[in-house]
Input
Amino acid sequence: MKAICFNFEIHQPMRLKRYTFFDIGNDHYYYDDFLNDDIITRIAERSYMPAARTLLKMIEEYKGKFRCSISITGTAIEQFEQYVPEFIELLKKLADTGKCEFVAMPYANSLASLKDPEEFANQVRVHAEKINALFGVQPKVLRNTELIYSDEIAPQVLAMGYKGIMTEGAKHILGWKSPNYVYSAASAPKLKLLLRNSKLSEDIAARFSDTNWAAFPLTADKYMDWIAATPPEEQIINLWMNIETFGGLQPAETGIFQFLEALPRFAAERGIEFWTPAEAISKLKPIGELVVMHPISAIDEARDTSAWLGNKLQNEAFDKLYSVAERVRLCDDRRLKQDYWYLQGADNLYYMSTKHFADGAAHSMFSPYETPFQAFTNYMNVLSDFIVRVEEQYPSSIENEELNSLVKTIRNQSREIETLHKEMDTLRKNAEQYNIEHALREPKPEEKAEKPAKKAKAEKPAEAPDAEPKPRKKPGPKPKKPAEE
Output
């Protein structure tokens, strides 16, 4: 049996406003709310909303035989809650069907997995809690930012409790192997890997409306023939793309929504099923281990991390951002922590890319800046102000060793306090139980009143021990009766 695993990514960054050198130290609000509102509202109207309605219709029409998954970042959820709450309601309806799986992600779509394991785990945990609170489901599979993965990341993911991770079927990693299987991580054999079929995914996402493409026009019938023609032992075809493909990158007038809606019908004719990522991992066994020594991703032709860390500008910003990670985690300032997450968004570094040709065109298309240098300057101005705020709480004069010692002390104190709280709860419960048992053993009020009364009648009051004994009178002679006259 062959199956298709659909995943639709939804992400919107917190775009920064134009922030000059003279704003440093004076303005601590960094975001362009007007631009964020405008972009997400427009995209929701032409893409997010109609795409979600189409998916819901497909699930209902095919009575649950069509299944899919959605990966949505925390920053996107926050903006939808603020600007397009009706889209959140649509996602809740999809979750209620039980046929749409929600996948775990780093909350801010960050690159923390490449630099800071503790920050990475924290963001994934908070994201999973947010998904559970909103949609009532617990994510079982992880999708890292832009499908970034390496052997170093695998043990971290397994330690978080996830049994599977989604990543790119990069050609330079697979070689002659096919992405249409489940693999296991070389550094964590219990972790299963699902690999994106980049060719079939991009046939929809990038080439669907390209009139110069040899396969144009692409129909649902033809597309399903391609999938059915893959070797029978290849059981899973992972089709993962941005949900903006539908109505955004591929406008509605191209027929993209009709194409999507027709897929289940032609799949059923060929005996092809639809699975969620969690189902694929539970049903299929790995055919072997996959070694990924250097991080891979789904971005650019190289399928590596050069989209974010490919030049000196990006690396300088990246290193400076994570240089204050430990200090931010120590503070109790919620606003500071929130800003730190927003600044970690991978988009900020993506805008600084200086690549050329096709990759460079893609970067410039999504960037709100005129040049990568402008993006770098603006970001570093914001980051400078942010670091000033961090140092107000934990000055840079504190050496790393001293800071680590402080962190250790605080954590030990936290554990000690937690232990004491547990002991207090135990003592409180024991006291409550003792009071309940004591109350059961005590006599009733009416019984208490009767017992002293009976005792008073039965017993005479004892004489005081200090009182002198009264002398007893000796009995005298009995009086004689008078003689009768």
User: Anything to note?
Assistant: Residues 420 and 426 are 10 Å apart (CA to CA). Residues 462-467 have pLDDT under 50 and may be disordered. Residues 400-441 form the longest helix (42 residues).
